[in-house]
């Protein structure tokens, strides 16, 4: 059974096409890194690549929390979440401390800007930026790093993306998505929505913090049911 809340038709959180799953998340969120990896891998296994697409929406934690996710909290999650999906790509931050990202907004904007080239391009850039941060310790706050990662995907038109970033074309979309998520309309990063209103926050994973909150204690996974991704993807395919 998919945990969900009622979402009325026409709600801005829903996808605009029945073959799309909306994914609200932040790039600096380990739970979202697990979710996005599972979405891609499960879609491939089910043979649904090309039939079900992902519409990434920004859930900018730094706007909700008035600051980027604190590194002690992020570091405390890596071993725990990495154990759920080691193939997603993880490592503790290996670069200099002063190269740790202080904002994810430019990278979130890049994912939105890439949608002008299609959802497939946006999907690939989103996943590549997550791997660059979590698995390669790259500062995806920086324009040059974002464009390097985009080039490495082999599918992004980098000059087009650079132009849109330099003109600030995607900032409004990030802010609009932030506004659509406020007041608990989007519960957390990640939160997935299907066209019929089906939705799941942090799909399949139940977690709690012990010995202190985020940045002090550490997470404990009480349950993990990755098969929910098969259910969500098959349902999205049935709606198309």
UniProtKB/TrEMBL annotation:
Checking Pfam families in the record gives: DSBA (PF01323)
Q: Which domain of life is it from?
A: Bacteria
Q: Where is the DSBA-like thioredoxin domain?
A: 21-195
Q: Gene3D superfamilies from the xrefs?
A: Glutaredoxin (3.40.30.10)
User: What name does UniProt use for this protein?
Assistant: DsbA family protein
Q: Which organism is it from?
A: Amycolatopsis thermalba
């Amino acid at each position: 059974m998919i945990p969900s809340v009622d979402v009325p038709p026409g709600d801005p959180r829903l996808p605009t096409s029945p073959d799309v799953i909306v994914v609200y998340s932040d790039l600096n969120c380990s739970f979202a890194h697990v979710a996005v990896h599972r979405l891609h891998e499960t879609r491939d296994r089910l043979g649904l690549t090309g039939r079900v697409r992902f519409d990434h929406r920004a859930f900018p934690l730094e706007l909700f929390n008035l600051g980027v996710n604190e590194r002690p909290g992020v570091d405390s999650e890596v071993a725990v979440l990495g154990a759920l999906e080691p193939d997603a790509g993880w490592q503790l931050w290996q670069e200099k401390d002063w190269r740790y990202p202080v904002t994810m907004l430019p990278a979130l904007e890049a994912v939105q800007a890439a949608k002008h080239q299609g959802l497939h391009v946006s999907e690939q850039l989103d996943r590549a930026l997550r791997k660059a941060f979590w698995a390669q310790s790259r500062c995806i706050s920086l324009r040059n790093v974002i464009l390097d990662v985009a080039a490495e995907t082999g599918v992004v038109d980098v000059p087009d993306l650079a132009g849109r970033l330099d003109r600030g074309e995607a900032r409004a979309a990030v802010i609009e998505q932030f506004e659509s998520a406020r007041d608990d309309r989007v519960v957390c990063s990640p939160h997935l929505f299907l066209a019929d209103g089906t939705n799941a926050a942090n799909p399949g994973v139940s977690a709690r913090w012990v010995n202190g909150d985020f940045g002090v204690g550490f997470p404990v996974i009480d349950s993990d049911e990755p098969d929910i991704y098969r259910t969500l993807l098959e349902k999205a395919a049935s709606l198309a």
